[in-house]
Design a protein that fits this description.
20 helices; Nitrilase/N-carbamoyl-D-aminoacid amidohydrolase; 7-stranded mixed sheet; Rossmann fold; alpha/beta; 634 residues; 6-stranded mixed sheet; elongated; single chain; 19% strand
Amino acid sequence: MRLIRIAVASVNTTVGAVRGNVDRAVIAAREAAEDGATVVVLPEQLIAGYSPEDLVQWGAFVDAQWKELERFAQATSDLGCAMALGLTVARGAHVYNCAAVVHGGKILGIVPKEKLPTYNVFYEARVYARGVPGLVDEVHGVPFGDLIFDFDFGTVAVEVCEDIWSPDGPMRRRSYAGAELVLNISASPFRLGVVGTRREMIATRANDNQVTVAYANLVGANDGLVFDGGGFVAQNGRMLLEAPRYQTGFAAVNVDLDRTRRLRRENTTWRADQETFAASAPSIRRIACPAMTTGREKLVYPVPPNRSFFLPGAPSQTTPRQDFCEDLLDALALGVGDYFEKTGAFKTVGVALSGGRDSLLCLYLARRWISRRYGSLGPEAEKQKAKEILRAFFMPSRYSSGETCKAAERAANDLDAPFVVLPIDDAFERELREVEKMLQPGETITTMARQNVQARVRAERMWTWTNSAAGLFLQTSNMSEKAVGYTTIGGDMEGALSVIANVPKTVVNYLLDYLLETTNMEGIRLTLEKPASAELADNQEDEKELMPFPVLDACFALYAGEKMAPSEVREVLLVMFPEYDPKVVENWAARFARLFTQSIYKWVQTPLCLHVGNLDLDRERALQLPVVQRTEWG
């Protein structure tokens, strides 16, 4: 047996906080070393924080990262474990997204990322240069390029995040060159369903390349990106470790590297491919690490938890519904909490609580973060923190119902948020009178204007509150309404952080149904009793003014996600929703395409949004569409 102990660490970093980030990394490394780790894997861009974006164009920012890497090496010089962590490194006119290997107080080598994503939320090729096969150079006197590392326990390769997502990434040639253990340092943002995809992909890479793969992911949120942390260790296709997500710390597992060597010898296909590679291989520099690593005498063979090599493990204790809801709720709550804390500008969190679904969910998410953040203090202290941080404001007009007032008040009470009622009718009428003075003969205040004025009065009050209470004003519109412009510029589109702007209305309803089942909160029950309504006019109901939300969300998924033409969307809807009159369905499809196209100018003005899906409405990071366009092609 050739036993080693691999630790994968999740660290919550802040972009630009190079000293604080390294302080956290040193703590994580020390804790893992105390647990007997031979190897510690830390996240991508740990020193810079991810994503640094154009900050890497500041030379001082890049230089500071190298100094902090040296400090990390010095601060861990007494540890015997080998460590990999991420930073930006300058080389000539270029900067690279790199993995650094550190051991015994020395920086042993720097390996640049090769696969630079420029899709969805990623723009790495805008600022970073790519590593290439066979690159051999030095930076600051340290080997730089296509490297593998020979330790006393075996041969190690390192790579950065996206490198593992391509089957033709650097793992292949480095495993053929002798690497038995591949350390992947990642900053992989949360997306719905991503954990299953990661697990399958990592196991597949470990099997294809007949290696042991250790994967560590960043945890925390920066701007609109939410990182769920966690990590994996997979040996030649077998998953050995899945680390907890949404929390800092590390998880570790013992691995027998002789098993990887044995499986290589048995796999004739891998051996033949390796021989072909060796005959015409690019130069991969081997870095010898003469210093001894942590003693491994006390390590024991990794026995399966159920003490059987043939029987399956324990079945999952959760349902797919629970996994879906808890995962999404945790991601959104983390996004709210880290934005609140890391920005450094806020002391309170405010929600214009309408008695409706969207604002209730946003307030719940803020409260959920408080529970995660301060729950260890005990129930009473946690409640006190909620009362100190949260604020809920109900601003009724003549169109607000008694039911929504009751629902809002009860929800605020359930979530320990101080509740204030501030009627807006006087301000509403006053604003209408002033606007009438702006109109020319023949012009009148429209029905839509009368509705939007109410939303804008509320938003103006919320902004004034933020200035006075250092408040984080949460914007509460959902993705479905945002997609078709069922929002008000200067009104419900206002806020400092758009919490559920990338959550469809059907998902909002699904989450609240789940929360009602699991928490039995009376405020949620009262909110769900009434049909969704903006309550800006008499007898208003959202689905009657738009279309049923399942239909609307299907339109959005097909048009914006699958990139179907409006005519194709119509065909699919007719199959999906046979309970509706075909003419009505056809009208809904045509209406969606028109409203979506005409509303792009609106949703490009929304605040910073949390990204939680593979399909987001965010022109800066996700769905980049021209504001001025027509759909004559559809």
